[in-house]
Amino acid sequence: MAANIKVKVSGSLYLPWILVKEKEKLNTKFTAMISVKAPPSVHSDALIPIHLVVVVDVWKGTIDDLLKTMKFISGVFNEDADKDQICVVDACEFKNKKLTIIDSWITHARENQINYVPESGTDLRLLLGRAVEILDNKSDGAKRAGFILLLSDGGSQQKFDDSSMNELFKVLGSKYPVHIFDLDSRHDPEMLHCIAKRSRGTYSSIDNSNNNNKLMEAVAICLGGLKSVVAINTRVRMSVKRDDTNPDSESNISSHFKIKIQPGDHDISGSKEGFLVGDGVLYAGEVKDLIVDINFSTICISSRTRSATLTATVEYEDSSSSLKQAAKCILRLLVTGTHNVPAMTAYKEWEQLLPNSMVLQRMIMLEVLEKLIDATTTKTAKKQMTGKKITTGEELRSMWRNLKKDGEYLKKVVAKNEENSDLLDLQWIDNDIEAMASCLDEKGLGLGHIYSWVSRYQMQRATTTGLPQPTKTPFLTLDMEKMVDRAKNYELPIQEQEDAGETGRKNDAPQLKAVSEEEPLEGDKCKRALELFKQIESRLTWYRKCPPGSSDGLVSIEKIIQQEIYEVGSLVSTPSI
């Protein structure tokens, strides 16, 4: 990366310093927010190539919506066929273990109106295990970041006990994030959300009504991110060093500091290599905020102000080389005694001011997330007095009211707001909680919407929640926004619209938009011909890369290329006079 498109790191303290009474031994802490910021949208040469496996577990008659979405995904990847790769694992066709190219899958799905549910149900261990196997065994040896997309309506999934879930996570590991799109909010989505959480992926809940546009737009948000990866294996290392190395024996702060990162983005793993930031992947324009507690003890603070230095270093890999890149920031931690007159004066003036609102906002969000996870997870709910998960809107509203009374930081904000100090605007959280509660009241739907909301703010990454959307979707990057606009304006090629209207796994599948019979203009013909030439070139690239044993895929691609060549011929042929 050029110097101006490097990953950056910055820090902010919740409170500027800590005031300690004279000769008081105290265990206390600083709270800081470390922000890791990816560079904005960059040239494609600076992006990290990806390998995507789409796992299809759809059984309930959404084939036209699914086909259109898969065709959209195919078009996006065909633009960079020499760089990125994509494969499909289909629950319907799992016994056929040949590597499936997405265009071959689309052709096969159109020609074969498969609509069955296995008696034993879908075993996600097998499907996701196959996806991991594909990503592990890259045929060309190229370095690509691996991801899994799981499209599922939950219609035939086996219910896993704790032992089965452990087997699943053992198969899945934590190498490849699984981004899940739940197409049916009528089932209990806890297992799907759990898979996304453990793999450090995201979970999106798609509203069943008008599924066509929402499915494609939800996938487009994810694709916009995956196609703009600028950093992988992103980790933050932190250290604290006392500035005064030889303090007065009766006037110091301890030299031992314990650093703890609050688990906002799932189970944060720390090691000698540092703390993994989310899934370790940064999309262009993303910002990840980590709340850090620095615990220490004070011993006999004198009139001197003591200080220490927190150094946060972010390390990552980009497309420029195999070597790790790094950036760092430094924060000063100050501790003073109450009999330090200048410090006391400054402290009293500071007390009239507000704490850092950006840090406070993230700390409050962590409180809300923790409570929602506790209330909607079976294992955790069993430990609570209720012994069950939240299932009604009133239970959720009651939980929110209690949290505003009892939350360590939330209750302070509520109290300050009641004093008209406007410490933080909580109205948007009130609105989202009420929207979730309304979904729960509507025939018991809504757990999926809660999980997707939690996933969004845990991972600090845009998801589709199924809730009324704000004017600006949180965490939506410029590349995601462009991809969503592309999805909204997407239309299938004319011949494929006609084919799609004749096929489907369900006879009552929704029909696609009718095709105009008006003869295209010459300019449009030229544009379409150029598009076809580009598609043919991409398919030929795939054809050359097709691994051994994929004869079905080769035949399908040959048929598609022949059809496209025929269409080009009809467009450029000289009209008879």
TrEMBL record:
Ranges for region Disordered: 493-520
InterPro entries xrefs: CLCR (IPR051266), VWF_A (IPR002035), vWFA_dom_sf (IPR036465)
Highest taxon above the source species: Eukaryota
Domain VWFA span(s) in chain numbering: 135-204
Gene3D superfamilies referenced in this protein's UniProt entry, alphabetically: von Willebrand factor, type A domain
PANTHER family documented for this protein: CALCIUM-ACTIVATED CHLORIDE CHANNEL REGULATOR, OS11G0687100 PROTEIN
Protein name: VWFA domain-containing protein
Lineage: Eukaryota, Viridiplantae, Streptophyta, Embryophyta, Tracheophyta
